[in-house]
Amino acid sequence: MAGRPDPRLPAGPIADAWRRTRAELPLISPLRKRQLQVLVVGTGLAGASAAATLAEQGYRVTVLTYHDSPRRAHSVAAQGGINAAKNYAADGDSIERLFADTLRGGDFRAREAGCMRLAELSSGIIDQCVAQGVPFAREYGGTLASRSFGGALVSRTFYARGQTGQQLLYGATAALLRQVAAGRITLLPRRDMLELVTVDGVARGVVARHLLTGALEVHTAQAVLLATGGYSNVFFLSTNALKSNATAIWRAHRQGALLANPCFTQIHPTCIPSGDPGQSKLTLMSESLRNDGRIWLPAIAGDNRAPEQIPQAERDYFLERLYPRYGNMAPRDLASRRARELCNAGHGVGPGGRSVYLDLRDAIAEQGRGVIEQRYGNLLEMYARISGDDPYAVPLRIYPAPHYTMGGLWVDYQLMSSVPGLFVLGEANYSEHGANRLGASALMQGLADGYFIAPATVTAWLAGHPTPAIAADHPACREARARAQARIDGLVAIQGDRPVDSFHRKLGALMLEHCGISRTAGGLRAGLAEVAALEERFHGELRVPGAAEGPNPELEKALRVADFFGLAQLMLRDALAREESCGAHFREEHQTPDGEAQRDDSRFAHIAAWEDAGEGREPIRHAEPLTFTALQPSARSYR
Amino acid sequence: MSRTIFLTLRIWRQETPEAPGGFRSYRLEAVSTDLSLLEALDQLNERLISAGERPVSFEHDCREGICGSCGFLVNGQAHGPQAATSVCQLYLRQFADGATLTLEPWRARAFPLIQDLAVERSALDRLLIAGGYCSVSTGQAPEANALLVGQEQARSAFDTATCIGCGACVASCRNASASLFVAAKLAHLAQLPQGQPERARRAGAMQAAMAAEGFGGCSSHLECEAVCPQQISADWISWMHAEARH
Predict the structure, then answer these.
(1) Which of A68, A124, A386 is facing B122, going by the closest CB pair?
(2) How many helices, marked H, and strands, marked E, lie in chain B?
(3) pLDDT tier for residue B203 given thresholds of 50, 70 and 90
(4) Contacts of A242 in chain B (CB under 8 A)
(5) pLDDT class for B1, splitting at 50, 70, 90?
(6) How far off is chain A from B169, nearest CA to CA, in Å?
């Protein structure tokens, strides 16, 4: 790749730019659409909504998911809600405010045109979901209810109890299944994408492994859409589902797709802390709890009294103290960093002093237990099951955990990666969240990409590139298949004695230490050396039981962890190269005297887009400059 | 309070659908009660892999009770003894020191076995394909507040929409009926204005699909309700029978 990637940004003012862009995009006649083949990988919110919409428009769509059913994609676990600039609460919200909150929340590391488009599309997403039968919470009069969420001063988050992602996903997958019934979608479950097929640099299909038979299949199409989610599982312990992985985006990257800002990863402040070394994941407690829960720590370091024995005057409600305007609703990165600092300073509670209290006592006293139960009942039940504590009687214990990855495959304004014909949607791409995503904005972005943006831009691509899909035995397909086969054979052949999880756990611990809430140049350099050394041991000591044929969950995991090693090293490099603090990326060398992130707009107001330079060669860092016309970068202040 | 216990896991092992299966017992020594049962299986699997044996296959993903991937019988009960809990949320603190847990896959004609504790549940998706949706295409939606839905009505629709598709209701039914699954989906959409235009067609099509997939009928044993991790009421099955005549 020569020079900088072209983001194909719209000309003119950013307000209404998407409508103007759409009006110019080429169209395709309904009859011709039926001849065009589109491939969608992933059935989360972005994938399911894109597949359904493209099929409704008449395309022939093939959908791959590694789940047994599209309904199980990890979007299902999103709890809190989805933002939209409906201003139903009549509290002064508007498209401009949602735009500004998104851009500011992302610490001016996203494209303003993309943020504006997202805010403009937000309202229509809610309309679409309601029409599908998504049972959002309602007011007594029957109108939609909304609540406020971290990083916002208005009430613009729509929700379905604590299971908003589940209900939105069921709406989107129902739309997908309707197209299966109509014969326009071929749904292929239990397929794991292992390679991208390109011809002359253009995406033409994928290689997938059938997870029951082990067979490698080639699926070709005239456009390929990746909606394969984020890579928080590089940290092993995260809030992500255990199978969530980076293989699809990493393999696309190895085939030429630029990977943008991989070091922008979000640590969510309100998760159930880790305890036993055998723990397999960290469970998120929706930050909507911060609406009613007060976060505190003992004011005296090392105070090991039970919480109820600590008098009010000896409690440090540190978010309320530091951020009086936002209090417990301070943005995720700030809440996480302050919790970690205080725990490091000896104020932490629970096992190993790695938790903070989230206390519902005052809310229960003011509003009654019934109200709190109605709002958070299912979350609190889940907490009780996992922790063994009663959250109505004692404060919850929470701690930050890796949760969401803003980084992802670089895409232009039309969601196309630097590999022509390859579109990337949802968490898998780098787009509107910048260096830090606001609560309840992931669902909005996934559905904006899938329902509204990709169907228009994929159509524009197909209109200009009507080349028929290649045959499955095309040399490019055979090569891609051979690459996947070689990786499988290589892993099975190691026959060491260590299970894949032991490597993954170690990789996660290294990444959390060196590339987590707080980063330093020294730590990142050490991380690079340690991850490379661990990768070498992985390829020498791994044991994958069984064979490449038949169901083999350990082989699936090994393929994923092998790719996490590559991605981890790119994250470390990216964090090292970004000599500033912004959003969730906090470099200790770059902070203000009072410990806030110090952004450097003169050197880093850009998207870093990494190019793979081939095996054993240093990746190349490209920069796409960011310009701001509607809102000038200001220091983020929530104090 | 964290403690450790000894457990014996008696697990159904069956390498392929065709091969004969049988129980094998594994002893877990000093395992922390802060682990979930699936995490105990993870530990067992690491041990089996290091010893050169085939690990136990079981379905799982989110491990927070919402994706619906996990599910097997624990001592004959779908998802184990704790009410309103999928098996990934079942923690070892529920069990006594020295207990023996028998783990078996869902057993239902419509859920063919894959391996060990894993079964194929795509039949449930085919029930949804038969009609579990509102036929509205992207871009056709009216303004969201144009449709008013009472708070109580929305709550009740949500309660039925919350089904995670785990299949416990089928596995615990002596007829392997999917009645609770189908009733929940029909009730979700029938309670909302959006679901009205296709209501009768949906009810007929989904119930016909249920029979065609090899699920049995309901004979009102209500085990489905008892094991449902989302606590969906079996009253909806009676409602569905009336709905068929709607």
Answers:
(1) A68
(2) 8, 7
(3) very high
(4) 60-63
(5) low
(6) 17
For residue A219, the SS3 value is: strand
User: Sorting pLDDT into bands at 50, 70 and 90, what band is B39?
Assistant: very high
Q: For residue B48, is pLDDT > 90?
A: yes
Nearest-10 Cα torsion for A22, A23, A25, A27? 110
User: Do A397 and A484 belong together in one domain?
Assistant: no
Question: Which of A66, A75, A134 to probe by mutation at the B interface, max B CB count within 10 Å?
Answer: A134
- Same domain membership, residue A482 and residue A384: no
Verify whether the Cβ–Cβ distance B42 to A501 is below 8 Å. yes
What CATH number is given for B4-104 in this structure? 3.10.20.30
Q: What is the pLDDT of residue A2?
A: 46
Q: Number of folded domains in chain A?
A: 2
| pLDDT on residue A1 | 46
Question: Residue A457: inside a domain, yes or no?
Answer: no
Q: Do A36 and A462 meet the contact criterion of CB atoms below 8 Å apart?
A: yes
Class of domain B122-243: mainly alpha
- Contact, B187 vs B236, CB < 8 A? yes
Per-residue H/E/C for A321-370: HHCCCCHHHCCHHHHHHHHHHHHHCCCCECHHHCEEEEECHHHHHHHCHH
Give the CA dihedral A131, A133, A135, A141, nearest 10 degrees. Answer: 50
Q: For residue A151, what pLDDT is reported? A: 60
The answer to whether residues A486 and A566 belong to one domain is yes
Please report where in the chains the tokens 């569905």 appear, as a residue.
Answer: B240
CB-CB contact of A238 with A249 (8 Å)? no
- Domain range for A285 is 268-403
pLDDT under 50 in chain A at which residues? 1-2
In a domain, A364, yes or no: yes
Residues of chain B with CATH 3.10.20.30: 4-104
Q: Which residues lie closer than 8 Å to B220 by C-beta, 6 or more apart? A: B234, B237
- According to CATH, where is 1.10.1060.10 located in chain B? 122-243
Alpha carbons within 13 angstroms on the beta-carbon side of residue A15 total 8
More confident site: B1 or A219: A219
Contact, A99 vs A119, CB < 8 A?
Answer: yes
Taking 80 as the threshold, does the pLDDT of residue B134 lie above it?
yes
CA-CA distance, A318 to A353, in Å (whole number)? 16
Are B141 and A139 within 8 A, CB to CB? no
Q: Cα separation of B62 and B218, whole Å?
A: 30
Residue A239: inside a domain? no
User: What CATH number should be reported for the domain holding residue A497?
Assistant: 1.20.58.100
Q: Are residues A479 and A399 in the same domain?
A: no
ipTM over 0.95: yes
